[in-house]
Structures are given as structure tokens and as C-alpha cells.
Design a protein that fits this description.
It is built from 6 helices and 11 strands. Helix 2 crosses helix 6 and helix 4 crosses helix 6. The model has no long low-confidence stretch (mean pLDDT 96). The structure holds zinc ion. The site of zinc ion has 4 residues, from loops.
Length: 255
């Protein structure tokens, strides 16, 4: 079987290595809407790949900006969640979705076991191995780690408008999420979801349950509404806000 990623295509993930080590690790599972050339467009028109089903619009720019401001180690997935979703357990129905929101994804229908295994081996596994290696190295060195899983959500899903500007998601170990929630709702006019419109579960998520909850690492999964960070001015505003609030939330969570 020829490899999925050609030699001239990006590696499965991009790492931002800070010049000096801060405590934050930022993951951006849905940073990109790129599809490996070998898969064409998965049978989709370009407009479908560009919309929220393909990626978390704005999340990569916020990750880059925050990594610089927080001196964070950060990792961004280089391929679309439609190829294989890096925040889903492999083998579950939404890992390589045959349908997303109201769109059928022809290139994900009727895959062989070998096709599925290849997407996992070339995209999912290396990304999560890199995260695990970084967390292992930090633990070995006795370095504190705070984990931020950064996502963005569509302002309208299946015809329903979502009023919240951002949301914190958590399951076990909610301290850092609660602390960030408290800081965000104190911002003027800010509507913040508390495990809404999504929440972290062992079945619906991969990064937080596997990398954080199994290790007992403090984490927050943060969702920002996509229309607020689709352009540079909104991205800058959210980078400033989070660079200010995340250290305050970390301090509060330590108490
Ligand atoms: Zn996401």
C-alpha cells in the first residue's frame, strides 16, 4: 500500500517549541482543513471542506498567538478532522465520519480496514505520540504542566444559533475549567458555556481523557465561537484575553 502522505506534503503535525519552558501545553486537534492529496477532496466540494465540518476555524491562529504569549509548547494537527478526527477514539463512528452535520462524506464511506488503519498510523498515532512524549518528558523532569485543549465551534449548528462566546468543557478534575469559567464570565458582556454546547466524555473525546485525566494533569478544554476568531482582529482580541486570564485561572485553581 503506498503511503497516504506524499514526501512533499506536510508531516501530520506541527510543534511550536518555546525558547524557554513555560507550564502550558496547548493542543489544537482541528487546526487544519488540509486533506492528503491521495484522498482528493473526499468527494466533497471545496465549500464543504472550508466550513466548520472540516476544521476549527480560527483555532490555529489563536494557538500560535497564545503559544508565543504564554511561552507554551504547542502542537497543531496538519490534516482535517474529516480524514481522521484526532479528538475521537479510533474505531468509533465519528473517528472517520461518513457524515458530518448534514453532509455525507463520500470518501469516508465503505473504507477497508487497511484504509482506516493507514489514516490512524500516518496521522492520528504520530500526533498523539508526540503529545505523550512531551508530557512524559515533562513528568520525568519534574516540570509542572497545565494542558489547554483549544477548539472552536460553529455559531449555528443544524439550524440552532448558539449565543455563548466561548465554553469550557471538562469531566474529571474540573478545577482549572471552573477557574477559567469564572474569569471569562467576569469579562463585560461575555456569555460562557459551562459544559455547553459540548462536554468532555470518555466516548466523545480523546485528548483530555487520555492525556490529562489518566495522568491526573490539570486541564481546560476551551471552545471559542468561530465568528469571533475568523479574522485577525478577533484573533488578536482573544489571544490578549486568554494570555491575561489563563495565568489568573491557573493561580486560582492552585488555591
Ligand atoms: Zn475542535
Amino acid at each position: 500500500m503506498p503511503s497516504l502522505l506524499a514526501a512533499d506534503e506536510p508531516r501530520p503535525f506541527h510543534v511550536i517549541q518555546p525558547p524557554a519552558g513555560g507550564c502550558w501545553v496547548i493542543t489544537c486537534d482541528h487546526a487544519s482543513n488540509r486533506i492528503p492529496r491521495a484522498l482528493g477532496t473526499l468527494g466533497l466540494p471545496d465549500a464543504e471542506i472550508a466550513r466548520h465540518i472540516g476544521w476549527d476555524i480560527g483555532a490555529a491562529a489563536v494557538t500560535h498567538g497564545l503559544a508565543a504569549r504564554l511561552n507554551a509548547w504547542a502542537i497543531l494537527q496538519n490534516y482535517s478532522r474529516l480524514v481522521i478526527d484526532c479528538n475521537r477514539h479510533p474505531g468509533t463512528p465519528s473517528s472517520i465520519p461518513p457524515r458530518s452535520e448534514n453532509t455525507d462524506i463520500p470518501g469516508n464511506i465503505g473504507l477497508s480496514a487497511a484504509d482506516t488503519a493507514q489514516r490512524r498510523a500516518e496521522i492520528f498515532d504520530p500526533y498523539h505520540a508526540a503529545i505523550a512524549a512531551e508530557l512524559d518528558a515533562r513528568a520525568t523532569a519534574g516540570r509542572a504542566t497545565l494542558y489547554l485543549a483549544l477548539h472552536s465551534f460553529t455559531p449555528v449548528y443544524d439550524g440552532t444559533a448558539r449565543p455563548m462566546h466561548a465554553a469550557v468543557l471538562y469531566n474529571r478534575y474540573p478545577h482549572l475549567s471552573h477557574a477559567l469559567y469564572n474569569k471569562l464570565v467576569a469579562e463585560p458582556g461575555m456569555i460562557v458555556g459551562d459544559n455547553d454546547p459540548y462536554r468532555v466524555t470518555d466516548d466523545s473525546d480523546y485528548g483530555v481523557p487520555v492525556h490529562c485525566e489518566r495522568r491526573g494533569l490539570p486541564y481546560v478544554e476551551l471552545e471559542i465561537r468561530q465568528d469571533l476568531i475568523a479574522h485577525a482582529d478577533g484573533q488578536a482580541e482573544w489571544i490578549d484575553r486568554l494570555a491575561r486570564l489563563l495565568p489568573m485561572a491557573a493561580e486560582e485553581a492552585r488555591k
